[in-house]
Amino acid sequence: MMISQFFVLSQRGDNIVFRDYRAEVPKGSTETFFRKVKFWKEDANAEAPPIFNVDGVNYFHVKVVGLYFVATTRVNVSPSLVLELLQRIARVIKDYLGVLNEDSFRKNFVLVYELLDEVIDFGYVQTTSTEVLKSYVFNEPIVIAPARLQPIDPAAIFTQGAKRMPGTAVTKSVVANDPSGRRREEIFVDIIEKISVTFSSSGYILTSEIDGTIQMKSYLSGNPEIRIALNEDLNIGRGGRSVYDYRSSSGSGVILDDCNFHESVRLDSFDSDRTLSLVPPDGEFPVMNYRMTQEFKPPFHVNTLIEEAGRLKAEVIIKIRAEFPSDIIANTITVQMPLPNFTSRASFELEPGAAGQKSDFKETNKMLEWSLKKIVGGAEHTLRAKLTFSQEFHGNITKEAGPVSMTFTIPMYNVSKLQVKYLQIAKKSSSYNPYRWVRYVTQANSYVARI
Amino acid sequence: IVGVFFFHLSTHETPPVNQNISTILAAPSSDLSSILSDRVTSRWFLLRWISRRTNSNHISTATISAMPPPAASSRYPSPSQPSGKSEVTDLKSQLRQLAGSRAPGVDDSKRDLFKKVISYMTIGIDVSSVFGEMVMCSATSDIVLKKMCYLYVGNYAKGNPDLSLLTINFLQRDCKDEDPMIRGLALRSLCSLRVPNLVEYLLGPLGSGLKDNNSYVRTIAVTGVLKLYHISASTCIDAEFPATLKSLMLHDSDAQVVANCLAALQEIWSLEASHSEEACREKESLLSKPLIYYFLNRIKEFNEWAQCLILELAVKYVPSDSNDIFDIMNLLEDRLQHANGAVVLATVKVFLQLTLSMTDVHQQVYERIKSPLLTLVSSGSPEQSYAILSHLHLLVVRAPFIFASDYKHFYCQYNEPSYVKKLKLEMLTAIANESNTYEIVTELCEYAANVDIEIARESIRAVGKIALQQYDVNAIVDRLLQFLEMEKDYVTAETLVLVKDLLRKHPQWSHDCISVVGGISSKNIQEPKAKAALIWMLGEYAQDMSDAPYILENLIENWEEEHSAEVRLHLLTAAMKCFFKRAPETQKALGIALAAGIADFHQDVHDRALFYYRVLQYDVHVAERVVSPPQQAVSAFADTQSSEIKDRIFDEFNSLSVIYQKPSYIFTDKEHRGPFEFSDELGSTSITPEVSSDIVPAQQFEANDKDLLLSTDEKDDNKGLSSNNGSAYTAPYESSNISSQMQELAISGPAASATTTQSSFDFDDLLGLGLSTAPAPTPSPPLLKLNARAALDPRAFQQKWRQLPISLSQEYSVNPQGIAALTVPQSLIKHMQSHSIHCIASGGQSPNFKFFFFAQKEAEPLDYLTECIINSSSAKAQIKVKADEQSTSQAFATVFETALSKFGMP
Predict the structure, then answer these.
(1) One-letter-per-residue 3-state SS of B730-784
(2) Do A404 and A348 share a domain, yes or no?
(3) What is the tens place of the pLDDT at every residue in A106-160?
(4) Is B419 on the interface with A (CB under 8 A)?
(5) For chain A, how many structural domains are there in total?
(6) Final residue before a domain boundary, out of B584, B602, B630
(7) B413 and A448 in contact by Cβ < 8 A?
(8) Are residues A397 and A418 in the same domain?
(9) Do B118 and A110 touch (CB under 8 A)?
(10) What ipTM did this prediction achieve?
(11) CB–CB contact B305 A244 (8 Å)
């Protein structure tokens, strides 16, 4: 392993924290790194890969909430180890600070140094467990107001939709005391599913995949054991069948292609009754990641039409239909579509009485953008756009535009039908009844309709 | 930008700092990446920037004088320079005031000051001048203060050895504190001072730290030993710390102590091994069966990071038999379900390395690891996905048939970063086969219209590569030609290059392609590569394209405006070819081209023009035979990476080599290649596992596929020209160009008639590959005498094998008698020994046998190391020679070949 340095840079390239563990990398590595990342290629579009080598020094970085978490080394290390570690350091810091952003970082950098000293010694990882670190860290976090929280991390999505949830709960530090002086006993279990669907131009599904995570954040005192029961008809692995054999989904069972588990999870009775048992460590962590290619009903149906209307004109019609129950509401929906390069103007026509909708034509990258605050299950919405071209065009206009892509969040809905049937907390006292939050959310990862 | 800024500066006393930071950063000429946000220091930075600009130009002196004069003109202010001086001086006096104070609440004030010091340190201001004050203030029981002080001291001690002495006292005292937390922290800081002449003060605290009853202190002490080793290796060895660590590693109850011992010992012994026999033995003892099992059996007691360390160790373990292998695999099976990608990849590496010699199981391993890796790709951040995907990429390229049905997993998603998309495109190219090509190419064609132009280009190239590796290219040709109809410049450019390559391999498609290409206006093509491709086609198919001579004429008339030498070279050749086919129409243009070419400032263009001119002068018919011989289809384009390199990268699985797609010796210096590098090549073959096929019920695959799994496809190796240099073209292009030039040379030689049929071998030989089939008599090398009693111990062999480059790589045929005798591999070892070539390691099973030989030149201590892989079903032996003396390696290879050819003969 052997990491030489660790540092965090802001978007503008200033050092927020900097720790040198082995004194092997020459001075100026933060500047070398930042210049390389900023000007990776002439072509501004190309993003710097997370790992690169400059003059024998290997730079690793992950971007978290707009900050660069960077490690350097001269050794031929395991790349996923370092990237995993950087990601984990970010999570540990978030556990302590409650909210992770540049501001909270700057206010708490001494605490961050304390953490870093215990996480890595002489380049070797010692521990990344929030739990273990608690006994070594003495600074009290200066918690910044949750109102300043930007909706970046998955937890933030809950602050918008589901009213049942106290939005600030997930931004609590694991060590800070409540102003009331009393810690609330509660545990959060989030089932977050990111879905990727590609529709062909004729509307049928080319590829689809669900990448899910059962995420847990526990504020229970005394670390009691927890049992989580999943669907009894859950199956893992699709046997000898081809992964993309859609006919196989006749049964009602949930079939995962594959999954993996956090190291605290014990699977003793998983095979018999689909329960996971664990003693949740402090902080936020994924209990289980899963992947599913079983056929599912895509939450939105997208219909796009682009037609020439005269020599220098064309019309675009985008229709989206929400294919989920009417008690479910999707929010923050955006629809994007690249228009032909020679489009000079676009005028939009929203449906009558449309509220909370915006449409825009981004001249620089010729992008049509349509955003909707919310869509109620079963509803259908249409956008018409009239395009004006700067030059005459012959050929197939559909090859010049598209595909249409969508992003959205649907709280309290999951497409895989994977469920947490119950969440059992083992603690003797009968009066002990902590809050248990089980939440579902579906998000678009790559939701694309070709035209 | 500069102007705007000055305006602020001259109208306000204090410029509105924060607004300007971004504007300054946006100026590409500035390298001020570490712009600061702290108000005080930002001003410092901005002023510095200005003062730098003033040197170059146009600021009135009045503006300059308005600034504080010193304003830190150096990048890294040293203590003598007053960067942020007033602030630091302020801090210094405040600290001094607090140092002696015992007033209540003083710790809080100290905390604030310490924080300030550390924040300056972070952003790069030198605060070493307050060293003394910091140490004075550290007499406190407040652990938060202590920690900040330790951090500070660790940062500046190395540069201030004299001041460091000040800290020794209080650190030593803290090492005896009753709070284990403080003992540990003090010990860590003490060892982090990195000051060589203070090491004597470390020994006592380290010794007691290793015996401390608190595990936190012990973990720190163990790493402290490693730190000491790096400051002064001899002190560390003399104090016999390694031995203590070894006993701790075997007996300590705390897993992290054990893990740190392992890490420290690996590092120490690897570094010592170069000059100490004992360290060598110790290093190898870490790989003994009891120790490996000791670690593996309790692997779950360790945290995930320590698990990676143990798994990396287990990779180097040489199992004693197949039961051993299966025991380890069963033990580690559940590690594949770990959510941490690093643990999974380390486990995968163990599985792959353990089963290298067991083809069927090796194949099962591929099937087994596929799903967990795909899950990791989709569950992590884009960065983590990229790391995992790079490893999948390696596996896919190695064994495409195993992933052929999973192609949809490698489709690009529109929001993925381009570095991920590029990998996926390469993977799709690799796994395309008869059953999935249609879908893959359809998908790739969608990307060709992508908004991301770079990805669109890559996608078109991918289609082209797939076309070149398929036998049935019918449908793909249509798609390619459709690209030309899209009328996007870059699409057309990429497609032209591909059509050219395709025609060189499948001339039968010329009719369809040429009719479409003929319709493209050369005016729309600007990129040199595409232009060159079009010109090549114009020359090659001049008889099928009615206006070829006129297009060429047009291009030749604009000779002066053609900036690319590559294009001009092609123009010359195309004009020649066209001339032979349609002389009357081309003669004038050719004349102009030759004249312009001879006057060209570019050496190659000049030479080629002159050469054509002279050949034409000599005899037009000879010229035609030279420049425009009957077309020959290229059967396979040379691979850009040799199989040797690919195997090397595979051996370095789960390291940066996979990400960079380069073996580690290319991008790291030797000392950093890895903490514990053993020769993998030897490691996996130095035993001969008695594996009979009935142990593992596994699917049977064709022999072909097995070969693919064990080492990358080596079949193409001797077809293509594996290495050529000095040409400015890219690889696939390069080889053809050279070979066509070679062809020209060969035909003009005396052996003209014979070489037309065997020309491809000729080229190889001209490039020095020395194939035995080459008709040209190579001068027989002087006979090499070998030392019959040469000796080399395996370790020295490993070391040499790692260090030396390959000086020779060849393939020989083994006669049938030899193959028959190979049923007892030992017989070959004996046979070679009788020719003074000694075996040092051997392994493998039918049909693949691997041997490592060495030999020594008589009377001189010069060694020849050879890796010899014999495939008994193809009756071929591939050898790689590494030699101390490069110049005689060919002579040695001859001796080796002679010896090998006599194997099995009575």
Answers:
(1) CHHHHHHHHHHHHHHHHHHCCCHHHHHHHHHHHHHHHCCCCCCCCCCCCCCCCCC
(2) yes
(3) 889 889 999 999 999 999 999 999 888 888 888 888 877 654 444 444 444 444 4
(4) yes
(5) 3
(6) B630
(7) yes
(8) no
(9) yes
(10) 0.89
(11) no
